[in-house]
Design brief:
It is a single chain. By secondary structure, the protein is α/β, with parallel strands linked by helices. Helix content is 48%, strand content 10%. The longest helix has 18 residues, at 22-39. The relative contact order is 0.17.
């Protein structure tokens, strides 16, 4: 089908847990940091360190950049550079090793680019962190638009990030598809402005204490593999 005659002209992706298993990378990185601090002299067991750090993330946000400082201040009473440095290095190595695309992400994106679709990322992550993750994934050159929280000043499900993406892509809402793993944010926000919505069921790995979903994503389509997104787009195009 000619690109001019297609109904769908653009695809908007969430980043974390849609293109990569962010939570797996985060968990592996925290475990590595805990072991590094223990090896440097911290008198705590790995599980206690891990649970305490994730409790801090729940309080101050999963993207907080000084969580180890807060952890050491809270548990030890002071930040010792030797312990902090070992934690940061171990965290970065483990995160980089675990931060890889989900299966078939590269295949799907290459196919979309080849077929002439405009691509965007809309993320609640800080701008630099979003670009870091895209660069780790080697996906930083594929997207026409990348919007992070620093760009939009709004968190999903606010309509602002989605409307800004549509404006920069130069397409109408009914000409674009949004795929994301968080129903209450990605699906509600995108659906609210008229985008076709796809729930990335494969990426929803949060426990129910964080996400309050009742099992119904509310999306127009649900996929268990990102490659199924190609079938969704073909369906919407009437192919």
């Amino acid at each position: 089908m000619s690109t001019n005659n297609r109904k769908i002209k653009a695809v908007i992706f969430d980043l974390d847990n849609t293109l990569t298993d962010f939570m797996l990378a985060k968990r592996n990185a925290i475990l590595a940091a805990a072991d590094a601090m223990i090896d440097t002299g911290l008198q705590m067991d790995q599980k206690t360190v891990y649970d305490t750090i994730f409790k801090l993330y729940d309080e101050i946000g999963i993207e907080h950049q000084r969580v180890f400082n807060k952890f050491l201040e809270q548990e030890v009473g002071a930040v010792e550079d030797k312990v902090l440095a070992s934690a940061v290095c171990a965290y970065r190595r483990a995160r980089e090793a675990a931060l890889v695309p989900y299966p078939h992400v590269l295949l799907t994106i290459h196919r979309l680019v080849k077929d002439g679709y405009k691509l965007a990322v809309v993320s609640d992550a800080p701008r630099f962190e979003a670009w870091l993750r895209l660069s780790y994934l080697r996906l930083n050159h594929f997207f026409d638009v990348v919007l992070a929280h620093d760009d939009t000043k709004h968190h999903k499900p606010s309509p602002v990030p989605f409307e800004m993406a549509l404006e920069r892509l130069g397409v109408a809402a009914d000409e674009a598809v949004m795929i994301g793993d968080w129903p209450e944010r990605d699906i509600v926000g995108a659906g609210g402005v008229g985008l076709h919505t796809v729930y990335a069921r494969y990426g929803d790995t949060y426990d129910t204490s964080i996400r309050k979903s009742d099992g119904d994503s509310g999306a127009d389509f649900e996929v268990d593999d990102i490659m199924q997104l190609l079938d969704v787009i073909a369906t919407l195009n009437g192919e």
